[in-house]
């Protein structure tokens, strides 16, 4: 899966900015799925992604 780009913070934060709860829910599911994949990321990128994911979950409530 090295050719698949994970949903980095910019994309997740853009979903938050829309205010669309359905879109945010879809991105949460996608992000959760991608987090389970074996993707070669630096620790810094992975932590940034996790932080954005948490922001998205909070905004989707």
Structure description:
The mean pLDDT is 88. Helices cover 70% and strands 0% of the residues. The chain has 3 helices and no strands. With 61 residues, the protein is mainly alpha-helical. The chain has helices at residues 9-18, 21-35, 43-60. Helix 1 (9-18) packs antiparallel against helix 2, helix 1 (9-18) packs parallel to helix 3 (43-60) and helix 2 packs antiparallel against helix 3.
Concise overview:
With 61 residues, the chain is an all-alpha fold. The chain has helices at 9-18, 21-35, 43-60.
Task: Sum up the overall morphology in one term.
Answer: globular
The Rg value, from CA coordinates, equals 11 Å
- Level of helix content? over 70%
Count of alpha/pi helices? 3
The proportion of strand residues reads: under 5%
Secondary-structure element string: HHH
**What is the β-strand count?**
0
Low-pLDDT stretches are none
Largest sheet, if any?
none
Seen as an oligomer or otherwise, the chain set is single chain
Secondary structure elements and their pairing?
Layout: H1 9-18, H2 21-35, H3 43-60
Task: Please describe the structure with a list of short key phrases separated by commas or semicolons.
61 residues, mainly alpha, 70% helix
């Amino acid at each position: 899966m090295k050719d698949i780009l994970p949903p980095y913070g910019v994309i997740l934060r853009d979903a938050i900015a829309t205010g669309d709860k359905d879109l945010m829910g879809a991105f949460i599911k996608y992000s959760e799925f991608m987090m389970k994949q074996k993707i070669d990321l630096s620790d810094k990128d992975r932590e940034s992604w996790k932080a954005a994911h948490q922001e998205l979950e909070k905004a989707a409530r």
